[in-house]
Amino acid sequence: MGIILSKVASVFILMGLGFVLNKKGILPSEMDKVLSRLLMSVTSPCLIISTMASKEIGEGLWGNVITAMVLSIVYFGIFMAISEVLCRKILKIPADQDCGVYMMLFVSINNGFMGFPITLAIFGEDVLFYMVFFQVTQLLYLYGPGTVRLHYGDGEDFSRTKALKKILGPNTIAAVIGLIIMALSLKLPAFIMDPIDIIGDSTTMLSMLVIGMELGMSDFKSILKNKHLIIMSLIKMIICPVITFLVVNWLPIAVEIKIIMIFGAAFPSAVAVAAISAIENKNSVLGAEGVAITTLMSLVTIPLAAAVISLLYL
């Protein structure tokens, strides 16, 4: 338990460093997009390839991969339905008042920036391996049904070509490359794998700095005045992990898959929500605020989820 809490603390210290460096002007707001592109286009794909290339194909591995993919699809399908009821029926958010942004914030999880590095730091590569497939499913959601929902109620169309390009982005391509390496049992030479490993290892530091910067740029007074956002965020960060645990805990599946499902539900909204909202001419400010407040709440939910998982499964 002490080791896990120590690793969680070290990750959030890096996040705090990003916050301080932003406030001091050492990492100005202008660096946010540059570092985000570096993470999404370079370091995160390298981390995916490094993780998958290091795995040996053993008995039951492909069965577990299929199970992870199927359960992640079920996960997003269930929480899409819950978001519909929550935002439209319970919170009664009008369709023309960013209802789609709230829905996407509720369903998405920050796998890329937070999930990969924190999971790697706490649970290791065996668990991270399966989280990669969780993220592939999320990319399909974000640039497919999620993008459609952003336009909920306004009758606007969106670029399907652009959505397809996003789905087939660097992280998805990296996952495909990793699968090919695994399927063919390829052993890449050290002069190729060593740089990939080194670049991938930098994902933890960079991702936490970026999240800290985003928290530093957020207007928390504005966030606290938005009752819909606060209620939605509390339900997402507290109720959703509990629901996921109650469903997944009893399933006859590999422990690693149980961990990624439960742990993933404890993560905040995906940073990509703000970016996609901006691209689709929706309320990207609300998207950024949702990411900020759920990230702040995750300072409690992530260590708590890690502690529960360690007690039950490790």
Describe the protein's architecture and organization.
The protein has 314 residues and is mainly α. It has a single domain (2-313), classed as Na+/H+ antiporter like fold (Up-down Bundle), CATH 1.20.1530.20. It has 16 helices and no strands. It has helices at residues 2-23, 31-53, 61-90, 99-107, 111-123, 125-142, 145-150, 160-167, 170-183, 190-201, 203-217, 220-224, 227-248, 255-265, 272-279, 284-313.
The total strand number stands at 0
- CATH level-two architecture: Up-down Bundle
Q: Output the structural class.
A: mainly alpha
Average pLDDT score: 83
Q: How many domains, as an integer?
A: 1
Count up the helices. 16
Mass-distribution shape: globular
Question: Span from first to last CA?
Answer: 10 Å
> What percent strand?
under 5%
CATH fold label:
Na+/H+ antiporter like fold
Low-confidence stretches: none
- The succession of helices and strands, N to C, reads HHHHHHHHHHHHHHHH
Blueprint (SSEs and pairs):
Elements: H1 2-23, H2 31-53, H3 61-90, H4 99-107, H5 111-123, H6 125-142, H7 145-150, H8 160-167, H9 170-183, H10 190-201, H11 203-217, H12 220-224, H13 227-248, H14 255-265, H15 272-279, H16 284-313
Give me some keywords for this one:
78% helix; Na+/H+ antiporter like fold; mainly alpha; 314 residues; 16 helices
